[in-house]
Structure formats: structure tokens, C-alpha cells
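Priority: medium. Attachment 1 of 2:
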């Protein structure tokens, strides 16, 4: 049996995946190897996923962003699903989770894996429920069958809800929002119906064997995460976290990589506490958080409420952020929602990296600032996180080409533009020194920046040679009115 990334790292071997990751992160391959060997970082890279451009998730590397996509019974054509994948990769998703619950799951999953340059994650419990017909009809044999099949297909990481135990369920009785994780609610119902322990917990060692054979990474699901800030940091959440720490160490003992999923709703002043506690309980295994949402009052704007928490979590050491779109809690996201959600989370991830002083992370900010001060509109657009959106907003009021040379925009106009006034004052009266900006002075050279790829423009830097052009996607399925995106596992 071929070695897993963590097994190779422990033996001192630097794999091809580690070399590629080192290149993308601008780090030494030996540092990457040591982080993987210690379980402080994961490289989700199923050996059956041929189209993969490897990446790394760990608190010592650039903060990553995941996008959820998926189908339902009403939205199951391949064209739509490939468009979702395209949208996610184009706007900067580092990984994609397929949370589909409709039909044609195998066909859609295999198509994603054939073309996706980013790691693909799944929640095999969803397929098990669909095949069983109801949560209570699930069997351990069925769970293992689905998990093994998805591993053979090439899935890079799977959310496994093995941490919710029968003894945890009474701890949720006083909550405002109960159990909000799909997987958690399914496992809770199964345990209540059968009067037995969580079947995923019961066969955890067998799951480890499957994962080790194909090098699948665990994403240990937080089934009892809070669904409202009132329920954050309660006994139920932290009791499951203790179990996740035990499961982390059991996976490591089987040479399997592990990351741990984190809470969805946490007030701002307790976000860092959640990250620090997970890092302690799970011995530094990468923390993968949904948000967290820091307030519950803004349906329709939860990409903002959660990005605030996400930036705070990244600053505290979270390794990957699962995006939330404006449609969270309200409906199935469309392409624009996916775009907005990824923009919010790329901002949160980058802000966390700047705050943590990741090598070269601020160079991107400095380059944009220099272009802005010099009124180099075209360069400012080129460097923007979303160039099309920046250009669109500028051109909404000043669309003509001559305004690309103008020393003002429509916000302040000619007379009240502070940067123009400042420049003129420095040039005219001699009382103020000129600022060192621009290519001829001390301008920031992003080409030589030590920043990781995700902290340099443009976003969406994965090798997408195997990702079909959007116009070719229609060959894979029927026309559909379905919209890209899917709600989170919340």
C-alpha cells in the first residue's frame, strides 16, 4: 500500500506534493514536511485525484478558503454542477466541498474529480441517508461502503461526524437552536431510534484503514456546533470537542491526516477562545471554521457577519475558513452569492495573514495603495481582489477612457480629492517631501514578493488546465434553471 502524506513525512520523505506546496507557499520543502509530520498541517491529496494541484492547510501557512457547492433533487444536471465548480475556483476557493443530496451523485462527483484542480471534500453521511431512505435505516456496513466508494473515486477529504456521542445529546436540551449540523442531527436521530452509540464512532478504526489506503484526510465534523450565539461555548460543544481531540490522535496513530471543523455562531469576544481551545485539545491539528457568525440579526448579510468572525479566527490561528454567502439560512445561493461569499472570505483570510505578519502578505496591500495614490486606475483594477467589480464601480459614473487618466473619481470630484490636493501641496510649496511611490521610486515589486500565491493577485491561482471552459460544460448535462451554490451544513 502506498504511503500517506503524513506517513512519508514522518519517515523523512519530501513528496512531490510537498514540493509543489512549498513552491506555492514560498516556504522550504523541509518545513512543509515537518509540519505535515507533526500533524500541524494537511495536504488533502487522494492519490486517485489526478487533476489535483496540491495545496496545504495549516496555521503556519496562508489562510485558506473553502466553498460549498452541491445539488438537490431539483438541481441535478452536470452542467450546473460544473458551473458551480468553475465559479468557486475562479473567485479563489482553495478547496470545494460537494454537499449534494440529489440524484446522479456518483456521476457528478466523478466529473468534479476529473476536472477539479482544488481538493474536493464530501460528507458521505448524506449519500448514506439517501440510499437508506431515512436516518434510522443507516447501517455501519452501508456507511463503510459509501466511504470506501468515495475514497476510490478520489475524494480528498471527508467530513466524518464521529464526535457526537449518545452521552452528549442531553447536553443540548437547554439550547435555543438545538442541533443545527445536518450530520449531527442525522446521527442524533439514529442514536435515539436505536439506543446505541454513534455508528461512525463505532467503526472509526475501519474508516481510518480506508483513509490510509487512499490517503483521504479527515475533516472531523463538529456536530454540536452552536447555531446561535446564545449556544456558543456551551457544555455540548466543548464535550464533543474533547472527543474530537481523541479521534485526532487515533487517526494520527493510523498515519491519517486530520483537520477539525469549528463552530458556526460565536460572539466576537469568544472567537479566539474557540480557536485556542481547539488547538490545545486537538494538539495543534488544523482548525477549519464555518464563519463564525458573530451576530444573528442580519439574515441576507451573513457573509458579512461571518467574515468578521472569520478574520478574527484567522488572526487567532484558524487554518481554513468555510465561506458563508448572503443566502445563508435563507435559500440556495446563486452565482452572484457565491462570488460575494468568496470575496468576503478572501478578504477575511488575507486580513488574518496580514495581521499574523505572514511573509510578504502586506505587499499586495502596499501595491494597491501605491497605484491608488498615483491615480493609476488600470493598475488598481488589475491588482484588485475582484478586478471586474472594481472597474464596474468606477465606470458606473466615469466610464470614458479619459477618466482612466484622471486625478479624481466621482466620490470627491476634482476640487475635493484629498490625494490630488496632497500631491499638489507636495509639488508646489516645497514644505512637504515627496512620497516614495511608483515603479520609479520605492514601489512594491510583487514579482519578487515572498508572499504565498494566495496573498498575491490574481485570485484563483490553481492550475486549472483540466478544468473545462464554461462554454463546454453544456456537453455534460441537460439545460436547467438551477442556480449555482448550496447552503452550508448548518
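Attachment 2 of 2:
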Amino acid at each position: 500500500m502506498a504511503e500517506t502524506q503524513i506517513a512519508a513525512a514522518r519517515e523523512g520523505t519530501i513528496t512531490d506534493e510537498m514540493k509543489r506546496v512549498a513552491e506555492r507557499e514560498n516556504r522550504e520543502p523541509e518545513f512543509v514536511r515537518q509540519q505535515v509530520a507533526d500533524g500541524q498541517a494537511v495536504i488533502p491529496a487522494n492519490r486517485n485525484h489526478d487533476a489535483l494541484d496540491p495545496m496545504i492547510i495549516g496555521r503556519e501557512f496562508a489562510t485558506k478558503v473553502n466553498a460549498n457547492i452541491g445539488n438537490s433533487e431539483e438541481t441535478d444536471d452536470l452542467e450546473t454542477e460544473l458551473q458551480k465548480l468553475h465559479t468557486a475556483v475562479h473567485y479563489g476557493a482553495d478547496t470545494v466541498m460537494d454537499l449534494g443530496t440529489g440524484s446522479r451523485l456518483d456521476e457528478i462527483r466523478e466529473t468534479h474529480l476529473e476536472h477539479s484542480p482544488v481538493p474536493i471534500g464530501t460528507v458521505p453521511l448524506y449519500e448514506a441517508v439517501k440510499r437508506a431512505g431515512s436516518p434510522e435505516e443507516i447501517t455501519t456496513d452501508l456507511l463503510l461502503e459509501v466511504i470506501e466508494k468515495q475514497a476510490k473515486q478520489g475524494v480528498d477529504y471527508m467530513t466524518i461526524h464521529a464526535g457526537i456521542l449518545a452521552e452528549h445529546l442531553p447536553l443540548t436540551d437547554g439550547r435555543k437552536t438545538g442541533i443545527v449540523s445536518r450530520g449531527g442531527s442525522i446521527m442524533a436521530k439514529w442514536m435515539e431510534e436505536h439506543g446505541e452509540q454513534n455508528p461512525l464512532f463505532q467503526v472509526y478504526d475501519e474508516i481510518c484503514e480506508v483513509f490510509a489506503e487512499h490517503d483521504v484526510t479527515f475533516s472531523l465534523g463538529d456536530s454540536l456546533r452552536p447555531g446561535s450565539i446564545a449556544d456558543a461555548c456551551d457544555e455540548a460543544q466543548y464535550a464533543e470537542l474533547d472527543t474530537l481531540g481523541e479521534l485526532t490522535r487515533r487517526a494520527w496513530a493510523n498515519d491519517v491526516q486530520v483537520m477539525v471543523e469549528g463552530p458556526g455562531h460565536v460572539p466576537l469576544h469568544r472567537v479566539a477562545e474557540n480557536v485556542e481551545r481547539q488547538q490545545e485539545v486537538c494538539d495543534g491539528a488544523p482548525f477549519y471554521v464555518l464563519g463564525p457568525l458573530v451576530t444573528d440579526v442580519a439574515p441576507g448579510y451573513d457573509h458579512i457577519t461571518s467574515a468578521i468572525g472569520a478574520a478574527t479566527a484567522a488572526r487567532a490561528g484558524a487554518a481554513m475558513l468555510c465561506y458563508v454567502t448572503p443566502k445563508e439560512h435563507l435559500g440556495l445561493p446563486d452565482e452572484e452569492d457565491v462570488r460575494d461569499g468568496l470575496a468576503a472570505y478572501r478578504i477575511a483570510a488575507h486580513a488574518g495573514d496580514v495581521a499574523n505578519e505572514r511573509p510578504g502578505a502586506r505587499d499586495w496591500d502596499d501595491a494597491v495603495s501605491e497605484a491608488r495614490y498615483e491615480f493609476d486606475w488600470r493598475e488598481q483594477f488589475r491588482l484588485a481582489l475582484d478586478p471586474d467589480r472594481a472597474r464596474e464601480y468606477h465606470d458606473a459614473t466615469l466610464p470614458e477612457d479619459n477618466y482612466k487618466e484622471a486625478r479624481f473619481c466621482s466620490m470627491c470630484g476634482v476640487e475635493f480629492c484629498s490625494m490630488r490636493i496632497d500631491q499638489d501641496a507636495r509639488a508646489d510649496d516645497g514644505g512637504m517631501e515627496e512620497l516614495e511611490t511608483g515603479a520609479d521610486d520605492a514601489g512594491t515589486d510583487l514579482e519578487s514578493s515572498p508572499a504565498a500565491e494566495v496573498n498575491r493577485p490574481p485570485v484563483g491561482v490553481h492550475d486549472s488546465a483540466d478544468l473545462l471552459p464554461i462554454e463546454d460544460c453544456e456537453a455534460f448535462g441537460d439545460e436547467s434553471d438551477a442556480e449555482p451554490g448550496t447552503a452550508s451544513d448548518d
